[in-house]
Amino acid sequence: MSDHVTRPAENPEAEVVETIGAVLTDLVEVAERLPVPPDQAERIARILDRLAEELGEAAAILRTQQ
């Protein structure tokens, strides 16, 4: 699963599309690991926390476009 690099938004709509696409890719990778063994639960939970944060940032970008 990749660490997505945050850059200044030259094209906010493109950034949202890119972010959502990357999140979906990472979610598929997480889903392929289910059920998560107890010794990997914290690691996977941190990945999900990061993805949730990235989706929140994408939502904020969309809101500023209104």
Q: Briefly, what is this?
A:
With 66 residues, the chain is an all-alpha fold. The chain has one domain (12-64). The protein is 68% helix and 0% strand.
Textual characterization of the structure:
- The chain is mainly α.
- Helices cover 68% and strands 0% of the residues.
- Helix 1 runs antiparallel to helix 2.
- It starts with 11 loop residues before the first helix and ends with a helix.
Any descriptors?
66 residues; 0% strand; elongated
Question: How do the helices and strands line up, and which of them pair or pack?
Answer:
Elements: H1 12-32, H2 41-64
Choose one word for the global shape: elongated
Q: What is the tally of beta strands?
A: 0
* Rg calculated over all Cα atoms: 13 Å
Mean pLDDT: 89
| Biggest beta-sheet profile | none
Q: Which range best describes the helical content: under 10%, 10-25%, 25-40%, 40-55%, 55-70% or over 70%?
A: 55-70%
N- to C-terminal separation? 32 Å
